[in-house]
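To whoever is on call:

I kicked off a structure prediction for a single chain this morning and the downstream step that reads the tokens threw a length-mismatch warning. I double-checked the sequence; it's 102 residues and nothing unusual in it as far as I can see. Pasting both halves so you can look.
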Amino acid sequence: MHLIERGGYQALYDEKGRILRLLQDANHDGVADAQVLYWPNGQPRAGELDTDLDGRVDRWEMFGTDGRLTRIGLATRGGAAADVWARVDADGRVLSSEPALP
């Protein structure tokens, strides 16, 4: 494994040089505001974002192996887990949304 840090970014690569994880600290407070995990083919697999920069993840993004966004989870009530999940099409348009299962 290889860890590379530059500015507000930290990237982890495997032995073959493939990216595994990317972290971003947008407001430079020492806490990651975004984390992206990658499939072995280099496409994004999942993302966790702190969109309001309060130190807690409030948006989750899931991607197919082709790198296309498929689902978005939102913590609309300030919780630590998604309370709403939305399915999106290839253009990122919401197809449906439903409450998260307890």
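Update from on-call: the warning came from a stale cache, not from the record. Cleared it. Sanity check on the structure: The beta strands are 2-6, 9-13, 19-24, 34-38, 44-49, 59-63, 69-74, 84-88, 94-99.
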